[in-house]
Amino acid sequence: MNRLRWAFADGATLTRRDLDHWARQPAQVVIGLLFPVMIVLMFGYLLGGGMTVPGGSGAAGYREFLIPGTLALTMVFGLEGTFQAIKTDVSRGVTDRFRSMPMASSAVVVGRSVADLLNAVVSLSVLALSGLAIGWRWHSGLAAALAAFGLLLLLRFAMLWIGIYLGLVVRGEGALVAVQILVWPLGFLSNTFAAPSTMPGWLGTIAEWNPLSSTVGAARELFGNPGWGGDSWVAQHAILMAVVWPVLLIAVFFPLSVARYRNLDR
């Protein structure tokens, strides 16, 4: 119990350290928050008038369709920020200095995960307020809406452990570009902007089984917003899979991240 208490204390210290960095670099935080808002405005107003979705009418219906997908997409793209922060600490020797201190071996990765999750809460809040400003609403009650936001944060929690692991493993100057090549297809090969049924058979199957698609489908269902639906098993059980996929990813990448951190110099 004493070791566990110190592990929590060390993790809290590292969380405060990451939050202090953001407080000293507000421009970086603001730019990160403005990007998803720009995506909402661009798709909502430039493309919204020419898009039709099942269960929605005109531009307003498309915006209600758009916001849940954009919220989930922002959670996935947050992986890049986690990766870059971890990689920067490793390359500058900060991580080695932490490892030489008498602290819990999980503190660095846990501290980063908590700080990034708090950042995700702020991102969701800003993006949701932007959606409300352009006419998006949820229609299934506050409890269902909170459940949807919970699933979005669960996806972000899974993605940040992938980012932590990649930040500890990937080396080289072009590492961020390589991660972007991984993340962007994951984000767009989904039901966020297009129905998987309109894609070639094999590609549509991949899109339907994309963890992001399950979270997007579950969020639209819980918010009461229009969506593509689907006849496949995974589409019919979007809420279940929006829990299963992140839990599986966390179960894989959390122990991998801690183990990699312990053996970083090998």
Automatic annotation (TrEMBL):
<keyword id="KW-0812">Transmembrane</keyword>
<keyword id="KW-1133">Transmembrane helix</keyword>
<feature type="transmembrane region" description="Helical">
    <location>
        <begin position="65"/>
        <end position="86"/>
    </location>
</feature>
<feature type="domain" description="ABC transmembrane type-2">
    <location>
        <begin position="27"/>
        <end position="264"/>
    </location>
</feature>
<dbReference type="GO" id="GO:0046677">
    <property type="term" value="P:response to antibiotic"/>
</dbReference>
<feature type="transmembrane region" description="Helical">
    <location>
        <begin position="142"/>
        <end position="168"/>
    </location>
</feature>
<comment type="similarity">
    <text>Belongs to the ABC-2 integral membrane protein family.</text>
</comment>
<feature type="transmembrane region" description="Helical">
    <location>
        <begin position="26"/>
        <end position="45"/>
    </location>
</feature>
<feature type="transmembrane region" description="Helical">
    <location>
        <begin position="238"/>
        <end position="259"/>
    </location>
</feature>
<dbReference type="InterPro" id="IPR051784">
    <property type="entry name" value="Nod_factor_ABC_transporter"/>
</dbReference>
<protein>
    <recommendedName>
        <fullName>Transport permease protein</fullName>
    </recommendedName>
</protein>
<keyword id="KW-0813">Transport</keyword>
<dbReference type="InterPro" id="IPR013525">
    <property type="entry name" value="ABC2_TM"/>
</dbReference>
<keyword id="KW-0472">Membrane</keyword>
<feature type="transmembrane region" description="Helical">
    <location>
        <begin position="175"/>
        <end position="194"/>
    </location>
</feature>
<dbReference type="GO" id="GO:0140359">
    <property type="term" value="F:ABC-type transporter activity"/>
</dbReference>
<dbReference type="Pfam" id="PF01061">
    <property type="entry name" value="ABC2_membrane"/>
</dbReference>
<feature type="transmembrane region" description="Helical">
    <location>
        <begin position="107"/>
        <end position="136"/>
    </location>
</feature>
<keyword id="KW-0046">Antibiotic resistance</keyword>
<dbReference type="InterPro" id="IPR000412">
    <property type="entry name" value="ABC_2_transport"/>
</dbReference>
<dbReference type="GO" id="GO:0043190">
    <property type="term" value="C:ATP-binding cassette (ABC) transporter complex"/>
</dbReference>
<dbReference type="InterPro" id="IPR047817">
    <property type="entry name" value="ABC2_TM_bact-type"/>
</dbReference>
<keyword id="KW-1003">Cell membrane</keyword>
